[in-house]
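Homework help board

Subject: predicted structure for assignment chain

Our instructor gave us this sequence and asked us to write out the predicted structure in token form, then describe one feature. I got the tokens but I'm not sure how to describe them. Can anyone check?
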Amino acid sequence: MSLAELIIGMSLVILLIGIVVPKADSGYMKSEWERRKLCSELRLLKRKNLAGIGEYMRIAKVNNKSCYRTFFDLKLIREEYVDDNIKVASNMKKIMFKSDGIPMDSGTIEIRYKEKTYTITITPISGRILFKEGIYSNDKE
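My token output:
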């Protein structure tokens, strides 16, 4: 068997594997990305309130699509929509921090995609923004 035959045979096997193996569902990756992005937005919101800028955030549903909105003095300054299949829900009406970093209201934000749910928690006393990751989340691995 020559080297050319070996290369052609290997490339055919790799091509068949690429066709047969189903593609991974990118929605899980998008929901993971949304969780990380929202967590960063919340931490930025906390830093801005520590600096004296009185911004706050609301989780909303507009035209059956989840979004989160940032306001300053009742003026909408930013609006982020998530993917159609991803749902964002919160038990807090208004997410805002005091000038010392303590949240006005503590609670959780859930990001759902199919059967997977990610939870972001804002702790009551310290205002820490946490999310469960890896073995501590409700992943079915």
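Reply (TA_rk): Your tokens look well-formed. For the description, you could write something like this. The two ends are 43 Å apart (CA to CA). That's the kind of observation they're looking for.
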